[in-house]
Protein backbone atom coordinates (compact mmCIF):
# COMPACT_ATOMS: atom_id res chain seq x y z
CA UNK A 1 0.00 0.00 0.00
CA UNK A 2 1.30 3.45 -0.88
CA UNK A 3 0.82 5.77 2.13
CA UNK A 4 -1.08 8.98 1.51
CA UNK A 5 0.52 12.29 2.49
CA UNK A 6 -2.18 12.50 5.16
CA UNK A 7 -1.25 9.26 6.93
CA UNK A 8 2.41 10.26 6.80
CA UNK A 9 1.58 13.54 8.53
CA UNK A 10 -0.12 11.68 11.40
CA UNK A 11 1.23 11.68 14.94
CA UNK A 12 1.86 7.93 14.73
CA UNK A 13 3.90 8.34 11.51
CA UNK A 14 5.92 11.06 13.17
CA UNK A 15 6.50 8.95 16.29
CA UNK A 16 7.64 5.93 14.23
CA UNK A 17 10.02 8.00 12.10
CA UNK A 18 11.52 9.67 15.16
CA UNK A 19 11.87 6.33 16.93
CA UNK A 20 13.67 4.66 14.04
CA UNK A 21 16.00 7.48 13.12
CA UNK A 22 17.23 8.55 16.58
CA UNK A 23 19.44 6.67 19.00
CA UNK A 24 18.52 5.11 21.28
CA UNK A 25 15.56 3.97 19.15
CA UNK A 26 12.58 4.36 21.38
CA UNK A 27 8.80 4.82 21.08
CA UNK A 28 5.97 5.39 23.54
CA UNK A 29 3.99 2.22 24.41
CA UNK A 30 0.77 4.15 23.77
CA UNK A 31 1.13 3.23 20.08
CA UNK A 32 0.50 -0.46 20.87
CA UNK A 33 -3.19 0.18 21.34
CA UNK A 34 -4.96 0.06 18.00
CA UNK A 35 -7.99 -2.29 17.97
CA UNK A 36 -5.79 -5.38 17.52
CA UNK A 37 -3.32 -4.20 20.19
CA UNK A 38 -6.17 -3.71 22.66
CA UNK A 39 -7.50 -7.17 21.82
CA UNK A 40 -4.03 -8.68 22.35
CA UNK A 41 -3.65 -6.85 25.65
CA UNK A 42 -6.99 -8.30 26.81
CA UNK A 43 -5.61 -11.74 25.85
CA UNK A 44 -2.44 -11.06 27.89
CA UNK A 45 -4.63 -10.36 30.92
CA UNK A 46 -5.99 -13.93 30.67
CA UNK A 47 -2.56 -15.60 30.49
CA UNK A 48 -1.52 -17.89 33.35
CA UNK A 49 1.82 -16.06 33.69
CA UNK A 50 0.35 -12.53 33.70
CA UNK A 51 -0.61 -12.20 37.37
CA UNK A 52 -1.41 -8.41 37.64
CA UNK A 53 -4.97 -8.53 36.28
CA UNK A 54 -6.09 -11.52 38.35
CA UNK A 55 -4.38 -10.24 41.48
CA UNK A 56 -5.90 -6.77 41.17
CA UNK A 57 -9.36 -8.21 40.46
CA UNK A 58 -8.99 -10.34 43.61
CA UNK A 59 -8.05 -7.26 45.64
CA UNK A 60 -11.03 -5.31 44.29
CA UNK A 61 -13.36 -8.20 44.92
CA UNK A 62 -12.21 -8.99 48.47
CA UNK A 63 -12.06 -5.36 49.58
CA UNK A 64 -14.97 -3.92 47.60
CA UNK A 65 -17.00 -2.83 50.62
CA UNK A 66 -14.08 -1.23 52.40
CA UNK A 67 -13.06 0.55 49.19
CA UNK A 68 -16.62 1.75 48.54
CA UNK A 69 -16.87 3.15 52.09
CA UNK A 70 -13.70 5.14 51.64
CA UNK A 71 -14.68 6.49 48.22
CA UNK A 72 -18.04 7.66 49.56
CA UNK A 73 -21.58 7.97 48.15
CA UNK A 74 -22.77 9.44 44.82
CA UNK A 75 -19.30 9.79 43.34
CA UNK A 76 -18.56 10.14 39.66
CA UNK A 77 -15.83 7.70 38.66
CA UNK A 78 -13.28 8.75 36.06
CA UNK A 79 -11.48 5.69 34.75
CA UNK A 80 -8.15 6.36 33.05
CA UNK A 81 -7.08 3.89 30.34
CA UNK A 82 -10.45 2.22 30.64
CA UNK A 83 -10.07 -0.67 28.14
CA UNK A 84 -12.58 -3.45 28.72
CA UNK A 85 -14.23 -1.87 31.85
CA UNK A 86 -14.11 -5.23 33.60
CA UNK A 87 -12.58 -3.95 36.83
CA UNK A 88 -14.75 -0.89 37.21
CA UNK A 89 -17.83 -3.14 37.22
CA UNK A 90 -16.68 -4.55 40.55
CA UNK A 91 -16.39 -1.05 41.96
CA UNK A 92 -19.73 0.05 40.57
CA UNK A 93 -21.40 -2.98 42.19
CA UNK A 94 -20.06 -1.95 45.60
CA UNK A 95 -20.41 1.85 45.42
CA UNK A 96 -23.27 3.66 47.11
CA UNK A 97 -25.43 5.18 44.31
CA UNK A 98 -22.61 6.12 41.88
CA UNK A 99 -23.44 9.33 40.00
CA UNK A 100 -21.78 8.28 36.75
CA UNK A 101 -18.80 6.88 34.94
CA UNK A 102 -16.44 8.74 32.64
CA UNK A 103 -14.20 6.14 31.01
CA UNK A 104 -11.22 7.60 29.10
CA UNK A 105 -9.15 5.59 26.64
CA UNK A 106 -6.93 6.25 23.63
CA UNK A 107 -8.39 3.29 21.71
CA UNK A 108 -11.74 4.77 20.56
CA UNK A 109 -13.24 1.67 18.97
CA UNK A 110 -12.55 -0.58 21.95
CA UNK A 111 -13.73 2.07 24.42
CA UNK A 112 -17.04 2.74 22.66
CA UNK A 113 -17.79 -1.00 22.37
CA UNK A 114 -17.10 -1.62 26.10
CA UNK A 115 -19.02 1.51 27.16
CA UNK A 116 -22.05 0.57 25.03
CA UNK A 117 -22.08 -2.88 26.63
CA UNK A 118 -21.87 -1.43 30.15
CA UNK A 119 -24.59 1.11 29.41
CA UNK A 120 -26.83 -1.71 28.21
CA UNK A 121 -26.18 -3.67 31.43
CA UNK A 122 -26.72 -0.58 33.62
CA UNK A 123 -29.33 1.63 31.97
CA UNK A 124 -29.59 3.82 35.08
CA UNK A 125 -25.92 4.81 35.13
CA UNK A 126 -24.68 7.86 33.19
CA UNK A 127 -21.79 6.42 31.13
CA UNK A 128 -19.93 9.13 29.17
CA UNK A 129 -16.97 7.62 27.26
CA UNK A 130 -14.19 9.96 26.20
CA UNK A 131 -11.76 8.79 23.51
CA UNK A 132 -8.67 10.80 24.36
CA UNK A 133 -5.01 10.68 25.31
CA UNK A 134 -5.01 11.84 28.92
CA UNK A 135 -1.33 12.77 28.60
CA UNK A 136 -2.36 15.51 26.18
CA UNK A 137 -4.51 18.49 27.06
CA UNK A 138 -7.77 17.07 28.25
CA UNK A 139 -10.89 18.95 29.24
CA UNK A 140 -13.32 16.91 31.30
CA UNK A 141 -17.06 17.58 30.99
CA UNK A 142 -18.79 19.13 34.03
CA UNK A 143 -18.78 16.79 37.03
CA UNK A 144 -21.93 14.95 38.07
CA UNK A 145 -20.78 14.35 41.63
CA UNK A 146 -17.60 14.36 43.70
CA UNK A 147 -14.92 13.01 41.40
CA UNK A 148 -12.90 9.90 42.13
CA UNK A 149 -10.25 8.65 39.71
CA UNK A 150 -9.72 4.97 39.00
CA UNK A 151 -6.45 4.04 37.33
CA UNK A 152 -6.10 0.25 37.52
CA UNK A 153 -3.74 -2.26 35.89
CA UNK A 154 -0.48 -0.58 36.91
CA UNK A 155 -0.61 1.49 33.72
CA UNK A 156 1.16 4.18 35.76
CA UNK A 157 4.19 1.87 35.49
CA UNK A 158 4.34 2.48 31.73
CA UNK A 159 5.33 6.10 32.34
CA UNK A 160 8.80 7.28 33.26
CA UNK A 161 8.79 8.29 36.96
CA UNK A 162 8.94 12.02 36.07
CA UNK A 163 6.08 11.66 33.60
CA UNK A 164 4.17 9.62 36.16
CA UNK A 165 4.58 12.44 38.68
CA UNK A 166 3.31 15.01 36.17
CA UNK A 167 0.35 12.83 35.30
CA UNK A 168 -0.53 12.29 38.97
CA UNK A 169 -0.27 16.06 39.51
CA UNK A 170 -2.77 16.67 36.71
CA UNK A 171 -5.06 14.01 38.15
CA UNK A 172 -4.88 15.65 41.56
CA UNK A 173 -6.25 18.79 39.85
CA UNK A 174 -9.19 16.90 38.31
CA UNK A 175 -10.21 14.74 41.26
CA UNK A 176 -11.68 16.41 44.30
CA UNK A 177 -12.32 13.16 46.23
CA UNK A 178 -9.20 11.08 45.45
CA UNK A 179 -7.60 8.43 43.27
CA UNK A 180 -7.74 4.64 43.49
CA UNK A 181 -4.73 3.33 41.63
CA UNK A 182 -3.32 -0.15 40.99
CA UNK A 183 0.45 -0.51 41.10
CA UNK A 184 2.55 -3.59 40.39
CA UNK A 185 5.01 -4.38 43.17
CA UNK A 186 8.74 -5.11 42.97
CA UNK A 187 9.08 -8.89 43.22
CA UNK A 188 11.10 -11.99 42.29
CA UNK A 189 12.59 -11.29 38.83
CA UNK A 190 11.70 -14.83 37.67
CA UNK A 191 7.99 -14.11 38.13
CA UNK A 192 8.35 -10.83 36.27
CA UNK A 193 10.29 -12.48 33.47
CA UNK A 194 7.62 -15.15 33.01
CA UNK A 195 4.82 -12.54 32.95
CA UNK A 196 6.40 -10.72 29.98
CA UNK A 197 7.66 -13.84 28.17
CA UNK A 198 4.57 -16.05 28.16
CA UNK A 199 4.76 -19.55 26.73
CA UNK A 200 2.03 -18.91 24.13
CA UNK A 201 3.85 -15.91 22.68
CA UNK A 202 0.92 -13.50 23.11
CA UNK A 203 3.17 -10.78 24.56
CA UNK A 204 5.52 -11.22 21.61
CA UNK A 205 2.57 -10.73 19.21
CA UNK A 206 1.47 -7.67 21.20
CA UNK A 207 4.98 -6.22 20.89
CA UNK A 208 5.23 -6.97 17.14
CA UNK A 209 1.74 -5.57 16.58
CA UNK A 210 3.34 -2.12 16.66
CA UNK A 211 5.06 -3.03 13.38
CA UNK A 212 1.90 -4.62 11.95
CA UNK A 213 0.09 -1.38 12.76
CA UNK A 214 2.76 0.66 10.95
CA UNK A 215 2.34 -1.62 7.92
CA UNK A 216 -1.44 -1.27 7.94
CA UNK A 217 -1.70 2.44 8.74
CA UNK A 218 1.44 3.90 7.22
CA UNK A 219 2.18 1.51 4.35
CA UNK A 220 5.48 0.44 5.96
CA UNK A 221 7.05 -2.89 4.98
CA UNK A 222 8.20 -4.43 8.27
CA UNK A 223 8.62 -8.20 7.95
CA UNK A 224 7.38 -9.31 11.34
CA UNK A 225 9.35 -12.58 11.34
CA UNK A 226 12.56 -10.55 11.17
CA UNK A 227 11.92 -8.99 14.59
CA UNK A 228 12.44 -10.78 17.90
CA UNK A 229 10.53 -9.99 21.09
CA UNK A 230 12.80 -9.27 24.05
CA UNK A 231 11.62 -8.51 27.60
CA UNK A 232 13.81 -8.49 30.71
CA UNK A 233 13.85 -7.08 34.23
CA UNK A 234 16.33 -4.31 35.05
CA UNK A 235 16.68 -4.58 38.85
CA UNK A 236 18.52 -1.27 39.40
CA UNK A 237 15.78 0.65 37.57
CA UNK A 238 13.01 -1.64 38.88
CA UNK A 239 11.46 -2.01 35.46
CA UNK A 240 10.68 -4.52 32.77
CA UNK A 241 12.03 -3.34 29.43
CA UNK A 242 10.47 -4.52 26.21
CA UNK A 243 12.31 -4.30 22.89
CA UNK A 244 12.00 -5.46 19.29
CA UNK A 245 15.33 -6.74 18.03
CA UNK A 246 16.24 -6.86 14.36
CA UNK A 247 17.13 -10.47 13.53
CA UNK A 248 19.23 -9.48 10.49
CA UNK A 249 20.56 -6.50 8.57
CA UNK A 250 17.54 -5.05 6.84
CA UNK A 251 16.07 -1.96 5.22
CA UNK A 252 12.57 -0.83 6.18
CA UNK A 253 10.55 1.66 4.15
CA UNK A 254 8.35 4.08 6.01
CA UNK A 255 6.70 7.16 4.54
CA UNK A 256 9.35 7.79 1.91
CA UNK A 257 12.30 6.98 4.19
CA UNK A 258 14.55 3.94 3.77
CA UNK A 259 15.73 3.02 7.26
CA UNK A 260 18.67 0.68 7.73
CA UNK A 261 18.70 -1.65 10.71
CA UNK A 262 21.61 -3.91 11.56
CA UNK A 263 21.30 -7.38 13.04
CA UNK A 264 20.87 -6.97 16.80
CA UNK A 265 19.62 -3.35 16.65
CA UNK A 266 16.84 -2.67 19.11
CA UNK A 267 13.67 -0.61 19.11
CA UNK A 268 12.73 0.01 22.76
CA UNK A 269 8.94 -0.25 22.90
CA UNK A 270 7.95 -0.23 26.58
CA UNK A 271 9.04 0.15 30.18
CA UNK A 272 6.92 -1.26 32.95
CA UNK A 273 8.07 0.14 36.30
CA UNK A 274 7.49 -1.78 39.50
CA UNK A 275 7.26 0.02 42.83
CA UNK A 276 7.51 -0.84 46.50
CA UNK A 277 4.58 0.44 48.58
CA UNK A 278 6.78 3.10 50.18
CA UNK A 279 8.34 4.06 46.83
CA UNK A 280 4.94 4.65 45.24
CA UNK A 281 3.69 6.57 48.27
CA UNK A 282 6.70 8.88 47.93
CA UNK A 283 5.85 9.48 44.29
CA UNK A 284 2.19 10.15 45.14
CA UNK A 285 3.15 12.64 47.87
CA UNK A 286 5.45 14.49 45.51
CA UNK A 287 2.45 14.85 43.13
CA UNK A 288 0.07 16.39 45.68
CA UNK A 289 -1.68 13.32 47.08
CA UNK A 290 -1.83 12.05 50.62
CA UNK A 291 -1.62 8.21 50.66
CA UNK A 292 -4.40 6.86 52.85
CA UNK A 293 -5.09 3.13 52.58
CA UNK A 294 -3.24 0.47 50.64
CA UNK A 295 -4.58 -3.02 49.94
CA UNK A 296 -1.95 -5.67 49.12
CA UNK A 297 -2.53 -9.37 48.30
CA UNK A 298 -1.12 -12.10 50.55
CA UNK A 299 1.80 -12.81 48.15
CA UNK A 300 2.64 -9.10 47.98
CA UNK A 301 2.49 -9.05 44.18
CA UNK A 302 0.20 -6.08 43.63
CA UNK A 303 -0.98 -2.99 45.52
CA UNK A 304 -4.14 -0.89 45.32
CA UNK A 305 -3.56 2.58 46.73
CA UNK A 306 -6.26 4.98 47.87
CA UNK A 307 -4.84 8.49 47.60
CA UNK A 308 -6.59 11.61 48.87
CA UNK A 309 -5.83 15.10 47.62
CA UNK A 310 -3.35 16.67 50.05
CA UNK A 311 -4.99 19.41 52.10
CA UNK A 312 -4.15 22.78 50.53
C1 LIG B 1 -0.79 -1.88 30.32
N1 LIG B 1 0.40 -2.21 31.08
C2 LIG B 1 0.22 -1.99 32.50
C3 LIG B 1 0.97 -3.54 30.77
C4 LIG B 1 2.23 -3.80 31.63
O1 LIG B 1 2.27 -4.84 32.28
O2 LIG B 1 3.11 -2.94 31.68
C5 LIG B 1 1.31 -3.67 29.30
C6 LIG B 1 1.99 -4.96 28.96
N2 LIG B 1 3.09 -5.08 28.28
C7 LIG B 1 3.39 -6.36 28.15
N3 LIG B 1 2.50 -7.07 28.81
C8 LIG B 1 1.60 -6.21 29.32
Tell me what you see in this structure.
The chain has helices at 5-8, 11-21, 35-45, 51-62, 64-71, 86-94, 108-121, 161-174, 189-195, 202-218, 277-286, and strands spanning 76-80, 100-105, 130-131, 147-151, 178-184, 227-234, 239-246, 250-254, 257-261, 266-273, 289-296, 302-309. By secondary structure, the chain is an alpha/beta fold. The strands form three sheets. The chain has a seven-stranded mixed sheet with strand order 3-2-1-4-5-12-11, with helices on both faces. A three-stranded antiparallel sheet has the order 6-7-10. It is globular. The mean pLDDT is 95. Bound molecules: N,N-dimethyl-L-histidine (AVI). The site of N,N-dimethyl-L-histidine has 11 residues, from helix 10 and strand 10.
Set down the secondary structure blueprint.
Blueprint: H1 5-8, H2 11-21, H3 35-45, H4 51-62, H5 64-71, E1 76-80, H6 86-94, E2 100-105, H7 108-121, E3 130-131, E4 147-151, H8 161-174, E5 178-184, H9 189-195, H10 202-218, E6 227-234, E7 239-246, E8 250-254, E9 257-261, E10 266-273, H11 277-286, E11 289-296, E12 302-309
Parallel strand pairs: 1-2, 1-4, 2-3, 4-5
Antiparallel strand pairs: 5-12, 6-7, 7-10, 8-9, 11-12
Helix pairs in contact: 3-10, 5-6
Instruction: Tell me, briefly, the overall form.
Output: globular
Total strand count, please? 12
Question: Strand pairing plus helix content: what structural class?
Answer: alpha/beta
Low-confidence sequence ranges: none
The hetero molecules present are: N,N-dimethyl-L-histidine
Number of helices: 11
| Intertermini distance | 56 Å
